[in-house]
Amino acid sequence: MNIKNWSLTLLLLCLWQGAWGNEKPNIIVIVADDLGWNDVGFHGGDIDTPSLDRLAREGARFDRFYTAPICSPTRAALMTGRDPIRLGLAYSVILPWDNNGVHPDEHFMPQSFKAAGYQTAMVGKWHLGHAQQTYHPNERGFDHFYGHLHTEVGFYPPFANSGGKDFQRNGVSINDDGYETFLLSQEVTRYIKQRQTSKPFFIYMPFLAPHTPLDAPQELQDKYKDINTDLAPARSTQTDNTRKMAKLTMQKSARPMYAAVVDGMDQAIGQVLQTLDDEGITDNTLVFFMSDNGGAAYSVGGADNSPLRGGKGETFEGGIRVVATARWPGKIKANTNVTQMMTVMDVFPTLAEAAGIETQNRRTLDGASYWSSITDGVHKPREEFVTFISEIPLYGHFNIATLNEEWKLVQEIDQEQTSIEIKNYLFNLKDDPNEYHDLSAQHPDMVKELADKIIQWRALHPINGVRSKLAPPPGWRAPLDWATYPIPIDKLQSTPARNMAPSKVIERILDRQHGTKGRLVYDCEPQWWSQGVCIKNSDEE
At the top level of CATH, which class does the domain 22-376 belong to? Predict the structure, then answer.
């Protein structure tokens, strides 16, 4: 080979190696719905979860990964990297009769990946708005959407919510038949095999499983018919009382069916992992798995969060500290524990750094990247507090927690018409990670300091954000088919509606008068030095 040809060969080799070295990873984000801490094999659970165990064995397990205690807030935080209190989605889930969704000006994670050249797909449960097309997955960065706009549509056809059919592909109603969990894995498998191989993919796969109403194939029901149903106490009044009542009324335990549903979900995840193997892309695919909140440990839920306290809807650790894993062979060390405290708001910036792409957010992210904590065990001190809340299921009953690496204040607030009752629990999570010892009486100053933080945090909530309105407006009717429900964009006005204030000046005055009750102006932060005047967190609209 002459010098000229040898030089050309070296140049091509360098270019090839550079292209290979800079190849962006595929991303799959898998979300379980209400999975319990003790319901996976790698946490010592008694349900078969070989696929999740494989992810944990071949990647990293997260010891302190936090979400909101209920569905929609977690999903909003995951998609935006922003605190759901700002979005008006902190207190409750989006119910069928709600018109709420995430503000169309908010930037979603798949939009950043799409801008970086990714093909994007969502397969599963949305639960982030259904009333107008601006809230639809296909308008939030997903090229492809297969699934349900709502929750609780059941595991077998007709996949209905409030009597209306809820199953679609890109806005068109479909009639696919089978077990919902397996339908999702079949669709993800199809999408991967039919992808454009020249482009990386971003797939969001939020399961219905193991959310109620529980159901599973008969062979899985038979497999778990004799599973232990005598679970350890949740150590929270609401959850344990439902269990006691169920026993007193001789109700059948939900645990066997719950286990069957979890097993089915694990099998579906296994199919996706096998597809990556078959396609030869396992080594260049980052798979991130999490539950959207703690397990539904109350009587009809069937989950087990032990040794954590409480469960779904509550802000003890069992409601907000969740199962999470991440695998990327060669990048994430196998069989490792991530001890860094992380939250669902950190997923977007963390995955963006892992993939080497830029987030495209105009508004300030509340999350941060912890990629180095996952890959190299770097500990980043987290002194700032993160706060979560739930008003589900009782209107005016709030479960709240604010926490950092060391301290955590849990509040249970009952708001009646002429009174309010507050119960405080203070825990030192470094010494007492499972919340056995309430230190509120020993540290009243700390309780007051953290309670004040909660008040200021709640003041960020838009006044017309979601609340726990479990009954529809009188006379409200559901559509026959939810695929037809979102108002098309060409039937909507071009800009978001203003509030009832007749001018900007009066709007600011009214916003100030609301004080800590909530924000009239979207995405603003009242400052002490401005005497409560709302300071925008982004450019004026």
Answer: alpha beta
